Amino acid sequence: MAVRMSVEQPLWRALLAYRLLTAAYAVALYVHAYGHLRHPLPGGVYMALLAGWTLATIGRVRNAERCTRAFLAADLTVAVGGILLTRYVDTMERVESGAFTLPSIWTAGAVLAFAVKGGWRWAAAASSLVAAADLVERGSPSRDTLHNVILVWVASIAIGYVVEVARASERTLARALQIEAATRERERLARDIHDGVLQVLAMVQRRGNQAGGEAAELGRLAGEQEAALRTLISAAPPAPRPGAPGDGGPAAPDGPQDLRTLLAPHASPLVTLSAPGTPVLLAPHAAAELAAAVGAALDNVHQHAGERAHAWILVEDEPEAVLVTVRDDGPGIAEGRIVAAADEGRLGVAQSIRGRLRDLGGTAELLSVPGQGTEVELRLPRGPGEYRAPGAAESGAALTDADGRGRT
């Protein structure tokens, strides 16, 4: 089960520890000054109430949901009541000399609860009530009293402001993560659609136009649907679904996958596959996506270079990366055509190839010279502890493509 991110949760834990420690400290101060108090018995009753209240409300200061307004009001009442009761319990000499109040520094915990729960405005209101109680208890404001009042007031407001900023940052980050997840999902769907439906619609349109007659009308309709679908998958991402599981794709098989096995079906009289003699092992998802990017590159060869164009797939298993090169003998790509295609919603290169490699942490480079064919280089870095076939790094076997140019 996913745990909700919360930047304020450490503050609640710190507040809980502060309340427990300061309650024990207040009780210790009372015991130490017991013989000097004018009416120690009422003070003892209050200290018992303070200790019991602190222990009984441990669950209330674990998070913002449990820390209700009613609890905050009661908590502040305990603090202010203890401050005002001090004037009756203690002697006037000790009060005027700046002796501790009954709740002592435990009072700051009640104010900080307001700050963490409601921000700096709540903190300002609570600290102002505590300041008023301190001034009434002292009778006349002294330098030490004013110093303590201002310290609590400034500290609580500062913490409340920090909490508000942290909450706003948390919301912004959560929204950014949702947008990123939705964008990646849209790109994945766009790649799948491009690899399947759009390719079929484009083929139907092309074959229908070539056949003429009623088939031409069918081709026209297929072309309209292709254009509409490209516009749809190029639009802004949909709103993310809260708690949506994963990417919705099929479950990947367990264990490493041999990239050669996934690329083997592409081999044909017009497509030459050159690969190492040892398995090229990758994580299942990475192998599937890399093979899909190769398939998208071959689809572009068939569509733009012609059905009789030749293509060569070269797989290289390097120590730090897997490199796959797809080259054809077609007419090449005109300058600026890839950018224009992306603007038109044709995402074969932008998403099906580059998008896949980018999601895997790799790169896709395209080199095309008009009249001299096109070369797509897919590079997927290996992470620490990545799968490696025994002897793959040491094999050094030379690979030769259809033109006889050796590559090691």
Describe the protein in words.
Helix 2 (about 40-55) packs antiparallel against helix 3 (about 70-90) and helix 7 (about 145-210) runs antiparallel to helix 8. The chain contains 13 helices and nine strands. It folds into three domains: about 10-170; about 185-235, no CATH class; about 255-405, Histidine kinase-like ATPase, C-terminal domain (Heat Shock Protein 90). The protein is of the alpha+beta class and about 400 residues long. The strands form three sheets. It has a five-stranded mixed beta sheet with strand order 2-4-5-7-6, covered by helices on one side. It has a two-stranded antiparallel sheet with strand order 1-3. The protein has helices spanning about 10-30, 40-55, 70-90, 90-95, 105-120, 120-140, 145-210, 215-235, 260-265, 285-305, 335-345, 350-360, 390-395; strands at about 255-260, 270-275, 280, 310-315, 320-330, 365-370, 375-380, 400, 405. Helices cover about 60% and strands about 10% of the residues. Residues about 235-250, about 340-350 and about 395-408 have low confidence and may be disordered. It is elongated, with a radius of gyration of 36 Å. The longest helix has about 70 residues, at about 145-210.
